[in-house]
Amino acid sequence: MKKNSIFFAWMMVAAFALGMTSCVSDDSGEGGGAIPTLTVKGEGLSDMLTYNIYLGDECVITPEIAYTGGNESNLTYSWKIGSMANGVMGELEEVSTERNLSYKFETGGTYYAHLTVSDGLVGKAVDYRINVNRTFEEGYLITSTDADGSGNLAFVKILTPEEIASGTKSVVIEHCLEKMNEGYSENGLLNAVLGTVTWPKTIKRVLVSTDKHCYVVDPNNLTIITDMKYEDLYPGFKATHFMPDSYTPWAYDSSTKKFAHINLTYMFPYEYQYFQGCNAESFNICKYSSWGSEALYTFYMNYTENKVAMFSSYAPYFGIDTFFPDTGDLLDGHTLITAFYGMAPGSNYVTPTYFISRDNETGNLALWTNTSDSYYYVNSNFSRQELTPTDATAVPAQGARIVPSAKQLRYYYAVDNAIYVLLTSTDFALPDKSQYAVQFGANEEVTYIDTNLSADELYVATYDKSSKRGNFYIYDCKDVRTDNATAVKPKAEYKSCAGRISNVIYKPSIQ
Asked: Distance (Å, rounded) from C-alpha 254 to C-alpha 322?
C-alpha cells in the first residue's frame, strides 16, 4: 500500500511537469529550446555589496544585470527596503519597480535593499547593504541665495576623526530642506536659527524661515516637525527678516511693520504686545559675553531718520512712553553707519554700546560710546571721538556688522574683499585699505562675517562674482590680525558650497 502511494505521487509530479512544459509557447524560443540565462552581480554572496551614503543624498543603485536568450522587455524588477540592526534584517517594504533604485532615506542608520529580477521563467535575487551616515549630526547650516534668486539652505558636515583618517572629503548638502522634505520649497528663504526651550526641560530646536512659513525641523535629519504659517497670525503677512533673539526668534514684515514671535514650546506664531510702534528699517544683531554666557542683542536701525532704537520692556517703568526708546536727536547732522555692542558688561553691569556715523558737514567719522545705559538711551551719557578719513581709509559700509573676539580683545569688519581689525581700547582709528588682516581674491566679495565666541573662531563668507557661488572660511581669531596678514590661513575652508551667503550658524550635536 505504501509503495503504491509513492508510485502514484511520482506519476502525478511527472504529469504536472509535462503539462507545464507543454504550456510554453514554441514562438517564445523557450518551448523545447534553451532557457534564458540571468545573472545579477552580488547574487549568492555571503557578504552583501555595500553602499555608503550621507543622509540627504539620494541612494542610487544601478545593478549589473546580464540577460541572454530571451526578450529583455519581459524582465520585471522589485526593490524592497528594510532596516538592519546588529546584523538582523527587518521587515521589507517595496519602494520601486524600476530597474535602478533611486531612494531617499529620512533617517540615518543601516539598511538593506532586496532586489528581485524575473522574466516569469527565471529569476534572481540579491541584497545590498546601505549605510546612511548621519550627515546633519554636527556642522554648519548656511543660508544663501542662488544666482537665479532661489533660496538655498546648505549644510556643511564637520567630519569625525574616523572620516578624516579614512580620507573622506568635505560633505556639503545643498538645498537640504527640499531634499529632506518632499514637496517643500526654499523659495523666499530668509534665515535659519537655533532656539532653546527651557521648560519643562531644555530642548534645542532648529528653525528655518521663508517669507511665508516658519519650519521647526528635526536637528538630526532636518525633516519638518511643524509648519507655521505667518498668515494664520496676520493675513497678508510677508516676512522680510527672521532674527534670533535671546528671548524668542521673530519674523518682521517691513511693509506692515508687524512682528511675529515664535512660541518655541508649543510651536505657533503670536503677537507679542510689547513689540508695537517700532519704526525700524533693518536690524543689526550683536553677540557678547554676559557673565560667561553668550547672549544676543539687537539694534533696531532707522537710516532715514538716523536713529538707533533698543527694545526695553522696562522703559515705561522709567517714564518712557515706548518699548523702543531711541537716540532721539543724538545723531542729527550725521549719517548713521552702523552700531555694535561691547564684549562684556563692565564694572557697573552695563555692556558698552557703540555707534559709528559720518558728519554731514565735515565728512568726519564719529565713534559714539555709551557705558551707562541699560534700559534706554540718555544722550548726555554718550561720548564722541572723531577722525578725518581719507580715500585710503577702510570705512565700513552702512549697516556693516562689526563682530568681536572677546578673547583677543579686538573687533572685525569687512570692506569689499578684505577683513579689518578695529580696536576700541585706544583712540578712535580705522586702518587704511592696505592694512587688512585677511584679503581674498579680486573676484570675491565678503557677504557675511561673524564670530563663534566659545571657540574664538571667525566665520567669513564670500561671493565669487565669476562663478556666482559662495565660499565659507573659518579662522582662528588669534591668527587674524594686521601684522599676520601675509601668513594667515583658514583652519577650514569650503569652496563653492552654496549661493550668495547671508548667514551661517554652527549646529552642534543635538540629542
From this structure: 19
Cis peptide before 161 (omega within 30 of 0): no
Q: How far is CA 247 from the centre of its chain?
A: 21
Joined grid coordinates for residue 218: 528635526
Nearest-angstrom CA–CA distance, 399 and 424: 19
Spatial distance between the Cα atoms of 419 and 449, rounded to a whole number of angstroms: 9
* Residue showing cell 509530479: 13
pTM beyond 0.85: no
Judge contact between 366 and 372, C-beta under 8 A.
Answer: no
Question: Are the CB atoms for 288 and 342 separated by under 8 Å?
Answer: yes
8 A C-beta contact, residue 411 and residue 421: yes
Query: Does the structure show a pLDDT above 70 at 255?
Result: yes
Look-up: residue for cell 514684515?
253
17 in helix, strand or coil? helix
d(CA 198, CA 248): 11
Burial of residue 334 (number of CB atoms within 10 Å: 0-12, 13-18, 19+): buried
Among 370, 349, 430, smallest CA distance to 396 is for 430
pLDDT in tens, 38-69: 999 998 887 889 898 888 889 999 999 999 99
